[in-house]
Design a protein that fits this description.
Its EC number is 3.1.26.3. This protein is mainly alpha-helical. About 60% of the residues lie in helices and about 10% in strands. Strand 2 and strand 3 form a beta hairpin. The radius of gyration is 19 Å and the shape is globular.
């Protein structure tokens, strides 16, 4: 697993320092004197900046709250896992035998961390102006549209897949209340799975409120599994 040419082709980037790509692909379970956690930390910060600037330019009429929601929908474990799969990153990661047995190459947490680390490594070696088009190209290839409705729909779909597999049921969304004048209404929706509530969220439409609360439930379920 020392031929990175396929990965570099997907990224449209060639690493000058091969040690850097090795570090970015090394999970802590692999038991080397180094792993990708520091590069992951760097990548997270840089990707927040790149995506923030991209959204600022793309949505000139959106306010700070809306921009923050869209960025939060992209810059997270689910979003980075999607991008990692786009470049088949799981095939290149160094993990322990135990993680291999536990299907570590397909785990969202491992894929997401490795993606951040790879982006951090490119930034470290070549800077922001080189990394920016690589990240934005991946983003636009992975999403047909980038807006609140489309991004949040991924959460509802992902949640339903998990609840059907793990609980044998689908989530139930309840409208708790709505308030405000007709032109500026807000809706508050709760989510229930097998009779248990997993949170509450607000949105400018019922649909957006449902998507927002689906993300909360998804994060809660993933948190319990760790």
């Amino acid at each position: 697993m020392s031929d990175y040419s396929k990965l570099e082709k997907c990224l449209d980037y060639q690493f000058k320092d091969k040690n850097l790509i090795i570090e970015a692909l090394t999970h802590k379970s692999f038991k080397k004197p180094y792993n990708n956690e520091r590069l992951e930390f760097l990548g997270d910060a840089v990707l927040n900046l790149i995506v923030g600037e991209y959204l600022y330019s793309k949505f000139p009429k959106s306010n700070e709250g809306e921009l923050s929601k869209i960025r939060a929908s992209l810059v997270n474990e689910t979003g980075f896992t999607k991008l990692a799969k786009e470049i088949d990153l799981g095939s290149f990661i160094y993990i322990s035998v135990a993680e291999e047995r536990n299907k570590g190459r397909h785990k969202a947490s491992i894929l997401s961390d490795a993606f951040e680390a790879i982006m951090g490594a490119i930034y470290l070696e070549s800077g922001l102006e080189v990394l920016k088009p690589i990240m934005l190209n991946l983003l636009e290839k992975s999403y047909d549209k980038i807006n609140l409705d489309v991004l949040f729909s991924d959460y509802k779909t992902a949640l339903q897949e998990i609840t059907q597999a793990e609980f044998g049921s689908i989530p139930e969304y309840k409208l708790e209340k709505s308030y405000g004048p007709d032109h500026q209404k807000e809706f508050e929706v709760s989510i229930w799975i097998n009779g248990e509530t997993y949170g509450c969220a607000k949105g400018k439409s019922k649909k957006l409120a449902q998507q927002a609360v689906a993300k909360i439930a998804l994060d809660t379920i993933k948190g319990k599994k760790r």
